[in-house]
């Protein structure tokens, strides 16, 4: 595992974006697994800058997002579909048919999970999967559990996740209770993993996930078993390791 401890959020974002830039330059038709949350916003801004300066081309890039709330339409400004378009897709030359997220409005949830997993497989899996980390160690929306969920599935969000994510909604009541997420198995199949973390609030969980026991109680701890993981964090998030 490679660890980059960067001075601050801006440096973290630049470093992580540089790893994505290198991936796309070495393979212009890369399949990028992408993530939402506040942590990757700075790195998406940096990718947009490099696109605008002509250093990065998304023409052949394909993307698969980690997760999506169940029950939110694409137009809802809290959906991950909306987030990704606002922060990245609308700002670069990616082809609309090459961006993929679970469909939060699918009527048959089970079928949607199977469709999404098959779609990722049909693209050959992610070349690089970007991840953030939740305060309870969740990746995507894989919450602490007694086992590691393998494939894309629908999860009931934990109260702590609803609490953490309510800052984006008018109230906690509006946060959806369910979400679709790639499984731990889906994430582990990515050829490279890039995980980003910033702020003192993540220091404890970063230490637990990467230097504690591998357990489904801390879903991100499974990444210790992946052969190609890069953690990029700011000094605060990496303070305890
Ligand atoms: C959400 C997302 C995760 C993300 C996590 C951390 O629940 N489903 O993919 O990594 O929150 O978010 P933040 O980066 O805002 O701390």
Short characterization:
This protein is an alpha/beta fold and 241 residues long. Helix content is 30%, strand content 17%. It contains 7 helices and 10 strands.
Describe the protein in words:
It is built from 7 helices and 10 strands. The chain has 241 residues and is of the alpha/beta class. A 7-stranded parallel β-sheet has the order 1-10-9-6-2-3-5, with helices on one face. Strands 4-8-7 form a 3-stranded antiparallel β-sheet, covered by helices on one side. The mean pLDDT is 97. 2-amino-2-deoxy-6-O-phosphono-alpha-D-glucopyranose (GLP) binds next to helix 5.
Strand and helix layout:
Elements: E1 2-6, H1 9-26, E2 31-34, H2 41-52, E3 62-65, E4 67-69, H3 80-87, E5 99-100, H4 109-122, E6 128-131, E7 153-156, H5 159-165, E8 178-181, H6 184-188, E9 192-197, H7 203-211, E10 229-234
Bound molecules: 2-amino-2-deoxy-6-O-phosphono-alpha-D-glucopyranose.
Bound molecules: 2-amino-2-deoxy-6-O-phosphono-alpha-D-glucopyranose
SSE pattern, N- to C-terminal:
EHEHEEHEHEEHEHEHE
- Rounded to an integer in angstroms, the radius of gyration calculated over CA atoms is 17 Å
Strand content: 15-25%
Largest sheet: 7 strands, parallel
């Amino acid at each position: 595992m490679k660890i980059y401890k960067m001075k601050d959020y801006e440096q973290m974002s630049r470093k992580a974006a540089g790893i994505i830039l290198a991936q796309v330059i070495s393979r212009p038709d890369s399949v990028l697994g992408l993530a939402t949350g506040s942590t990757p916003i700075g790195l998406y801004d940096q990718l947009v800058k490099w696109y605008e300066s002509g250093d990065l081309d998304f023409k052949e890039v394909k993307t698969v997002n980690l997760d999506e709330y169940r029950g939110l339409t694409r137009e809802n400004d809290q959906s991950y579909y909306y987030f990704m378009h606002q922060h990245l897709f609308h700002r670069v030359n990616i082809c609309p048919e090459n961006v993929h997220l679970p469909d939060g409005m699918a009527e048959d949830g089970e079928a949607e999970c199977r469709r999404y997993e098959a779609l990722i497989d049909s693209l050959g899996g992610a070349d690089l999967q970007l991840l953030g980390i939740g305060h309870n160690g969740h990746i995507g929306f894989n919450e602490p559990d007694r086992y590691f969920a393998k494939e894309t599935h629908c999860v009931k969000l934990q109260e702590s996740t609803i609490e953490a994510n309510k800052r984006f909604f008018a109230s906690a009541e509006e946060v959806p209770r369910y979400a679709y997420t790639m499984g731990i198995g889906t994430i582990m199949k990515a050829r490279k993993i890039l995980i980003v973390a910033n702020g003192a609030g993540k220091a404890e969980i970063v230490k637990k996930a990467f230097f504690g026991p591998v357990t489904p109680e801390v879903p991100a701890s499974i990444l210790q078993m992946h052969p190609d993981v890069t953690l990029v964090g700011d000094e605060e998030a990496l303070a305890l390791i």
